[in-house]
Amino acid sequence: MSQEVIEITEREIEVIEVVEKGPAGPVGPQANINYTVVSSPQTLSNSQNIAADTSGGSFTLTLPTNPSAGDSIDIFDYSETFDTNPLTIARNGENIESIAEDLICNVEGAYFTMIYTGATRGWQILPRYGTTGGGGESVLTTEGDMVYRGAAINERLPIGSAGQILKVNSGGNAPEWGAAPATGVTSVGVTGSDGIEVDSGSPVTGSGTIALGVNAATLRSHINVADGAEVNVQSNWTEADSGSDAFILNKPSTFTPSAHASTHATGGTDAIAPSDIGAQYAFVTSIANLTADTTLSSGRTRKIFLNNYSSPAAKITVTMPTTGNENGDILVLAGSTVVDDIDIKNNPTGSVIATISATGQTFRFLYSGSWGLDRVYNHASQHASGGIDELALAASQITSGTLTHERGGLEADVSAYDGLVKISGGSTSAVTVTTAGEALLDDADAAAQRSTLGLGAVASSNSYTDLDNQPSIPSALNDLSNVSAAAPSDNDVLVFDTATSTWVAEAPAAGGGGGTKTYAVFTPDNNQPPASNYATLDTRNSVACLDFDDATDESAVFVGIIPEGASLGSGLKIRIHWAATTATSGDCVWLAALERMNTDLDSDSFDTAGTVTTTCNGTSGIVAVSEITLTNIDSVTAGDGFRLKITRDADSGSDTLSGDVELVLTEVRSAA
Amino acid sequence: MAYKFTAASTQYLSCASAPVTTYPLTLAAWVRRTALSGASGILSVGVNGGNHRFALQHNFGGGLHLQVIAIDNQSAAGVANTSGLTANTWGHVAGTFTSSAGSSWKSYVNGVQGTITSVETRNPTGLNFVGLGARYSGGNLGLYYEGDIAEVGIWNVALTDEEVASLADGMTCDKVRPQSLVFYAPLVRDLIDAKGGLTITNNNTATVANHPRVYA
Predict the structure, then answer these.
(1) CB contacts < 8 Å between A and B, how many?
(2) ipTM of the complex
(3) Are the Cβ atoms of A537 and B216 closer than 8 angstroms?
């Protein structure tokens, strides 16, 4: 029979193996006692020993009615089936363990005695299991209580407070409830006697602090921190106290960079050019006395002394190094009493930087990608014509002194001059200033210049209206034959012909430029009406007009002159501006006839009329324009008088416009 | 456009003042008579509600195509043409008054002077009215015109025969001695005194008609 903890709940009572002080007894049903096997509901009696068999199913045993204190009944799980088929003990009106609830036995193999102790506590349950002796056993009284093995007997551990954790007491011999750590420890294994150690397999995760009740030395040993270790110790190079936390042991007294000279040398990983450190005149190598051809090796600066050198048997060549040079390298050829025939070559193939052939000279050559002559002392002869460094200086490079050069040289200091300086005496001057040119250039203003140039008043006044003293037109401009293929006539004007891109002379066109031209415009009051069937004078909104009947042909006659220059080759166009008196639809037929007024005025002699049919505007008061190209113009020519007769061909079948029409304007224009 | 008058409708044009009130003067107009019958006033310069007047009028019943008269307190006196007009045809009529002597008065139809003369003397006074198509006589307005009238002109001089002939040829009034023209109503649709600026009233809605042949 197993020993199980059976909890008493408020609603159900299960068999509890409660440790309670009481007499020790054997484990399991007692020998030599008669048990009654029951497998069905019944009421029990005092002193019965019941072997309840629930193998066939759960049933209820009812406690005796009106028990007396001290009455007892033994019950055990006959078939060890209480776990599957629980046995119910009905209280029959009395309390069981102070609770007015039936008891449900669901522990396999349970064996217990029920003893009636009175109305208050009612039937008490005495679990029957053996102990090894010692005192009585404690009773679990509160939900959550636990039983643990004490020194001699099972002991009760009451339920702890919320949040407490179960731990081993300080004596290490019993469980107890304690406070949970402030931050989570996900897994902790208890080992040793030093407190809680985190298993390697269950590391503490998260952040925060862990308050450990462990020995500091032990803790330090766990985290390999020496006794007395401090945090945030800042080292101090200058700290001299060896006992200070900031003291630095084994400080070197000097520093010798390892092999850095090569790194700063030419070709090194951090090469430094002389110009980088301002080095200019630190001489590294020198040749004390040049006597023979020499090829220089690369070096920062060097100085070659030419002292006491005189009259070599042959020209000496000094060859500049071509490799290993750095910008800023300087070669100085120091001055000597006698220097003769020395070539400074850039490379063995022979390009020459300079040839020195004068005495008492000092030269400095500067490397900037190639060797060049940087400075020459006592250089006057060097810069002269034929010298080793013949100068070609720009004027801006001359800051003082005078230059006496063959071309453009000045005879004297001209800084005091405010104007042009005349150069004279030169034999190869590029510009010759004549006397007339001098006179013009030194004129004070434009007027004086015009006077010098002999310009008259027209130019001086800047006004084209001033025609006094106008210069004569060169005769060539009077001749237009070279302008136009045809000889010009009197009064011809020059007209630009875009077709030939030339100027041509032609008679002026009436009305000005190109395009059609208006030769005459007639208004109603210009009408010189025929003797009969005449258009009658009227007004429309005070606009004068001539009324033309819609049944009888009526006419208006205008008199004019063909203007000079009129283009008549294509005839004339007659444009009639008119409006219907009331009609808003219909066609009006107009006739136009021209008479050249070179015949007897007593009779009409109009040429054949031209005609046009025009539909009136949809609004009666809006003017429509009818245009007749009149090719029969009675041979009028420019300057001829003419009569123009405008007729409404009212009786024409094509004239469908009802009512009068009103002539407002008549225009005569060129046909082309 | 000329103006058409219907006598039965007592249509006439009028001005409330006279552009000329004494000698010399000339009256002229273009007329187109529907029928050469009856008598009708063409143009008068008279007295509103009075009798004194200078006038041009037809008296076809008396055989006179044109009467040119002057009336004061005495009976009418005047000169006349007995021919020249054609029904439904524009014709020009004119009368010139040099002085109060009737012998200085002249009548013209189409530039032709009439043959009837006068020896009377008349002095109309108090003139304050112009009538076109009617005239005051004895205080009564009458002799309403039946036909068309246009190009009415009044000068404060007696035009010459040639000048009247120019008018008859179609010259508009403003082309003939314009400096003496004191009243000019072309009657081209608009009722305007193009010279004197008098207000012309259309009484009883006289209508417009085709204009005569003039050189505008």
Answers:
(1) 37
(2) 0.82
(3) yes
φ, ψ (nearest 5 deg) of residue A435: -65, -40
Report whether A60 contacts A89 (CB < 8 A): yes
> Which of A524, A540, A547 is closest, CB to CB, to B216?
A524
Which chain A residues contact residue B189 at CB under 8 A?
538-540
Side chain identity, residue A461 = S
Q: Which residues on adjacent β-strands are paired with residue A255?
A: none
Indicate yes or no: CB of A537 within 8 angstroms of CB of B190: no
Dump pLDDT digits (tens) for A52-110. Answer: 999 999 999 999 999 999 999 999 899 999 989 999 999 999 999 898 999 998 888 88
Q: Is A234 exposed, middle or buried (0-12, 13-18, 19+ CB in 10 A)?
A: exposed
Q: Does B216 touch chain A if contact means CB atoms closer than 8 Å?
A: yes
- Rounded to whole angstroms, the Cα distance separating A464 from B71 reads 74
Chain B residues within 8 A of A558 when measuring between CB atoms? none
Instruction: Give percent of chain A above pLDDT 70.
Output: 63
- Asked whether the whole model's pTM tops 0.80, one would answer no
pLDDT digits (tens, 9 = 90+) for A329-364: 877 766 555 455 667 777 656 667 777 665 556 677
Q: Which two tokens stand for residue A477?
A: 């401009």
Average pLDDT over residues A204-224: 63
* Residues B65 and B81 sit within 8 Å (Cβ to Cβ): yes
Lowest mean pLDDT among A9-23, A24-38, A610-624: A9-23
Q: Using CA coordinates, name the residue in chain B closest to A557.
A: B215
Distance of residue A539 Cα from the nearest chain B Cα, in angstroms:
6
What stretch of H or E contains B25? strand B25-33
Q: How far is the C-alpha of B111 from the C-alpha of A578, rounded, in Å? A: 34
pLDDT in tens, A603-647: 999 999 999 999 999 999 999 999 999 999 999 999 999 999 999
Q: Per the CB < 8 Å rule, is B214 touching A531? A: no
pLDDT of residue B163: 95
Q: Exposed, middle or buried by CB within 10 Å (0-12, 13-18, 19+), for A617?
A: middle
Return the minimum-mean-pLDDT range out of A104-113, A324-333, A457-466: A457-466
Which of B 184-213 lie inside 8 A of A, CB atoms?
186, 188-190, 210-213
The distance of Cα A117 from the centroid of its chain, to the nearest Å, equals 94
> If you write DSSP's letter for every residue of B113-133 in order, what string do you get?
EPSB----B-------EEEES
pLDDT of residue B201: 96
Best CA proximity match to A324, nearest among A268, A364, A279: A268
Give the C-alpha separation, A93 to A103, whole Å: 12
> Using the 8-state DSSP alphabet, how is residue A96 labeled?
B
Spatial contact of A621 and A664, defined as CB atoms under 8 Å apart: no
> In 3D, which of A606, A614, A592 has the Cα closest to residue A635?
A606
Q: Do A527 and B1 touch (CB under 8 A)?
A: no
